[in-house]
């Protein structure tokens, strides 16, 4: 991992294990309102919740991590690859990155991303049923297939 400090800021858990674990808190995922909130989530909707300093890097990571651009079930299970793209892009030089986000902005983004990915790790495509965007289920299930599942309550 090239950016250990950075990873700690954006992701919920830092694991030094070679194999990622599919983790989620089921109670948090099923917080009332979440199914409506995350329904058909695409980059345009997510961008409304995140600091604009991330937008260019979000697009880059969405396009380059092997998942469909607007498939956040895939981006979330694929977070090891996704974070390696978004973090060096968005983090400021003081943190070893090339981006424009301040630590305060990254601190705002962190719980939003953590809650979103907790939801999608728990529900995968459940909330994308009937949505318009292209999704890459094969990629997602391929990532999940190699992982241990850790469920908390
Ligand atoms: C899971 O989420 C619930 C609701 O947000 C929280 O109260 C609980 O402490 C979390 N459990 C763990 C193990 O983090
Ligand atoms: C979601 O699961 C992936 C592994 O598939 C893991 O890397 C990521 O940290 C998890 N996200 C959350 C918020 O637990
Ligand atoms: C950082 O800001 C500059 C000036 O606004 C902009 O040209 C550049 O694309 C931004 N970089 C990223 C990664 O957002």
Automatic annotation (TrEMBL):
Q: Which UniProt keywords apply?
A: Disulfide bond, Glycoprotein, GPI-anchor, Lipoprotein, Membrane, Secreted, Signal
Per UniProt, subcellular location reads as: Membrane; Secreted
In terms of InterPro entries, this protein maps to: Extracellular_membr_CFEM_dom
Question: What range(s) does the CFEM domain occupy?
Answer: 50-118
Leader sequence range is 1-20
Record's bilayer topology term: Lipid-anchor; GPI-anchor
A GO CC term? extracellular region
Which family does the record claim for this protein? Belongs to the RBT5 family.
In its UniProt entry, what is this protein called?
CFEM domain-containing protein
What species does this protein belong to?
Cucurbitaria berberidis CBS 394.84
């Amino acid at each position: 991992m090239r950016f250990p400090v950075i990873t700690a800021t954006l992701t919920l858990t830092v694991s030094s294990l070679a194999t990622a674990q599919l983790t989620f808190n089921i109670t948090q995922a099923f917080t009332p309102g979440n199914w409506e909130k995350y329904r058909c989530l695409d980059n345009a909707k997510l961008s409304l919740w995140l600091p604009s300093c991330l937008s260019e890097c979000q697009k880059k990571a969405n396009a380059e991590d092997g998942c469909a651009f607007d498939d956040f079930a895939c981006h979330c299970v694929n977070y090891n690859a996704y974070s390696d793209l978004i973090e060096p892009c968005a983090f400021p030089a003081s943190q070893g990155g090339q981006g424009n986000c301040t630590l305060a902005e990254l601190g705002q983004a962190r719980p939003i991303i953590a809650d979103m990915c907790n939801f999608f790790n728990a529900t995968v495509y459940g909330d994308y049923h009937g949505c318009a965007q292209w999704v890459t289920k094969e990629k997602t299930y391929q990532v999940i297939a190699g992982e241990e599942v850790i469920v908390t309550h």
